[in-house]
Design brief:
452 residues, alpha+beta, Heat Shock Protein 90, 4 domains, six-stranded mixed beta sheet, five-stranded mixed beta sheet
């Protein structure tokens, strides 16, 4: 199909003019050079290198001959779009092409587009491109997401990040390009994971699973939640879930009361961020947060990189990042340090923290403090002092409340295997005895065990 356009041209890194298909051999070289430089390009036959439109004689075999030559001479194979165009009332031929499998050769030789010229590459330069491309292809975070388009990106999310990073003056498109999140080939996986409107639409592992257990094992589950969305949201949800399900003490600073969790907030945040920074995104499993009566665990798929051990990281202060681009974005948002001190940072705040690799899963464990032991002693003491025929049920109710202060009457009914009416009776008894009280309303309040 012919189209009519007006020529206002100059050659560039992605555009080359050829007077006619008599220069097809040179055009093949330009194709490989542009692919190696920009991963795409256009050849126009019927225009001189000065941009003058002179037209091209086109027979039945002309387009077929161009297609055949490209197929035979360019490796790896590409599949260009070749069509006739009427430019300034003259017949021309447009060849448009793209490819990501660099380096591309033309008749066995390699070239690189520099400005509007094609420069032949040395063996060392070709080897370097091959190694760089191989390394890039091994990294999930820098690969292009072929199924996404710019309209899938949330501009408000990008602007929110730019504000954190102190880059408010940039537009969303410019920022994505400058941060290596977008190229002429498209958007990277990192751009989608961090800034897409619905990342889970493209990556099913853009999820977070959380659970609370009524003990030190997974046999007795109290609560289970699943979240999906961009990584910044999932980090926030993980932090909130942990803080909601562990105990808070308090500290008085001047006239202000400050809630103090039994596990250091900064350590919790660092453990969560590390999980999202260093997880293996090729693995379809999700990051998991587990809250036990004596600890929290954050589990992420993907063990340490480059043969490193946990001992190496702790004793020798060395680290290796699986997702360098993700880590760079987190650093710009002031989520992490540039020098990879994550584990050291955690141990400074929680010296008993434990790190281990089980199969292909990395597990970070933060232990809950003596407040848990004190509360359990209180629970046991209260239960032992109650009427004998009610002690077991009331003890179990107090244990469940101790684990989850927002547990509902219906949930207690299911766990204790009593009717909600019976649970109400036990709750009233415990409140009358002064061992339990309700803070806030039924919908948004919580239970509080009273240490008399």
């Amino acid at each position: 199909m012919k189209s009519i356009i007006k020529a206002v041209f100059s050659e560039s890194e992605e555009l080359e003019f050829k007077s006619s298909t008599g220069e097809l051999k040179e055009a093949i070289i330009s194709i490989s050079a542009m692919l190696n430089r920009s991963r795409r390009g256009t050849i126009l036959f019927g225009i001189t290198d000065k941009g003058k439109v002179i037209g091209q004689d086109i027979s039945n075999n002309t387009i077929r001959e161009i297609s055949r030559s490209i197929s035979e001479k360019i490796e790896p194979k590409i599949y260009p779009e070749i069509r006739e165009e009427l430019i300034e009332n003259r017949n021309c031929i447009r060849v448009s092409f793209a490819g990501l499998d660099v380096p591309y050769s033309a008749d066995g030789r390699f070239y690189l587009r520099i400005g509007d010229e094609d420069r032949k590459l040395s063996t060392a330069e070709v080897t370097k491109i091959i190694l760089e491309n191989k390394l890039k292809n091994l990294r999930w975070d820098t690969q292009l997401c072929s199924s996404v388009s710019n309209k899938d990106i949330s501009v408000p999310k990008v602007h929110s990040f730019l504000k954190l990073a102190g880059l408010n003056s940039l537009s969303a498109t410019t920022a994505l390009s400058n941060l290596n999140l977008m190229s002429k080939g498209g958007l990277t996986n990192t751009a989608v994971l961090l800034f897409a409107k619905t990342p889970e639409k493209f990556f099913p592992n853009a999820k977070l699973r959380c659970a609370v257990f009524g003990g030190v094992s997974t046999s007795y589950i109290i609560d289970r939640q699943e979240y999906s969305g961009d990584v910044f949201l999932l980090i926030k949800k993980a932090e909130e879930y942990i803080l909601k399900n562990i105990h808070l003490g308090m500290r008085i600073e001047g006239l202000q009361r400050e809630d103090v969790p039994e596990i250091n907030r900064e350590a919790i945040r660092e453990v969560v961020i590390n999980a999202f920074c260093h997880r293996d995104y090729f693995d379809l499993d999700s990051i998991t947060v587990l809250v036990f009566s004596n600890r929290i665990e954050v589990r992420n798929p993907g063990v340490l990189m480059g043969g490193l051990t946990i001992r190496d990281i702790i004793s020798k202060k060395v680290s290796k990042r699986r997702n360098e681009l993700i880590c760079d974005i987190f650093h710009r948002a002031r989520y992490v340090e540039k020098f990879g001190r994550g584990i050291a940072f955690i141990l400074e705040r929680e010296p008993d923290a434990r790190f281990e690799q089980v199969g292909d899963v990395f597990i970070s464990t933060l232990f809950r403090k003596n407040i848990e032991d004190a509360n359990m002693r209180l629970v046991n003491g209260l239960a032992n002092g109650l009427v004998n025929d009610l002690a077991d049920k009331q003890k179990l109710i107090l244990k469940l409340i101790n684990t989850n202060s927002k547990v509902s009457i219906k949930e207690l009914s299911m766990e204790v295997h009593l009717s909600t009416t019976a649970i109400d009776g036990h709750i009233k008894k415990l409140k009358d005895l002064g061992h339990l009280r309700r803070v806030g309303n039924k919908r948004s309040g919580y239970w509080e065990i009273v240490n008399k």
